[in-house]
Amino acid sequence: MTSTAVTVGTAHELRAVQEFYAAREWTDGLPVVPVTEDYLDEFLATTDRDPNEVLFRMPHLNRDLTVRLAAINAALAGCLPHYFPVIVAAWRAIALERFPVRGIWQSTTGTAPFLVVNGPVTSQIALNSSGNIFGSGFRANATIGRAIRLASINVFGLQPHRLDQATQGNPSKFAAAFAENEAESPWEPFHVEHGYAASDSVVSAFVIRTVMHVEARHTRSAEQLGRDFVNSITRTGALLHEYNTSLLVVGPEHARVFADQGWDKSELRRFVFENAVLPRSALAEVGKDAISSYSRWRLPADHPDAIADEAAAGDRPDTVRALSSPEALQIVVAGANNAGVSAVVDIFGSPRGVPVSLAQVE
Length: 362
Fold this sequence. Notes:
Blueprint: H1 8-23, H2 37-44, E1 54-58, E2 63-66, H3 67-77, H4 84-95, H5 101-104, E3 112-118, H6 121-124, H7 139-154, E4 177-179, H8 190-193, E5 202-215, H9 222-233, E6 245-250, H10 252-260, H11 265-275, E7 277-279, H12 280-285, E8 290-292, E9 298-299, E10 306-307, E11 319-321, E12 329-333, E13 341-348, E14 357-360
Parallel strand pairs: 3-4, 6-12
Antiparallel strand pairs: 1-2, 3-5, 5-13, 5-14, 6-13, 7-11, 8-9, 8-10
Helix pairs in contact: 2-3, 3-7, 9-11
């Protein structure tokens, strides 16, 4: 850096403020933006909602997130005020999630909120949809995701080593938000697929476990590429419950491979569902050939709590489906148009329903 835009006194004051926030554990480990009432008012002015309206609650912790608290944490995260309607929509989508999310953010698995945004708002706030969507470099992506994380810490008390019980966690616990690359997708946008108009701006919320890249630069065959996705989804390490729920983040090049051979999202979803099948012996080898009668988690068949799963593929008891239905797999298009790379995102969700919730940006 070559600029010396602040005086020494101001720099000392800023550092003192940062240490004040850090000492009270109001951060995620990184510096935050100091919040004044005047600055907070700029965020609240972007929504018609009452500052005291509750957007999300965790009853088991007896704590509520209000619009005002969401705005404070958005400002702390470094958001610009005009990002705030997206954050409000994100919290509304999170509150609608079908999986019992109120406790899942404390999971030892290291779960985190994961946001996909569609519609005109993505260009209005410069939300990245291509090139390094899971990485750094874009203020809207980084700070919108971070606003959710900071609120989970500051409002709900989900600090690591305390109420956050993640064994290892994952980088999404800092921030995970990106836009679908609608411009380079051959398919209808994700929010349109789920009943919204293309002109609507919508936030979709998932609960992420991990992200795995699928490197496939070698083929122009839709079936070969589809089987690469199948292989990633059916790995035994991903099978925690009776079934998986997954999100495919398909790169534009891969999406065109499918589209050029007449595959739409429903055809890709059907192909993966029908082929995401494991021999039961493969699960027995890793002690996951039954489920718990209490938690429904996978465990060995000789465990005292074990009961048979219902995941047999059709009338073949020697096989197990990784997905309960085609709808347990969701698909968005994102990433750069520069290499054959996609991703399988392991997510938590109701295995017999659609593992995503959506809310419109107001």
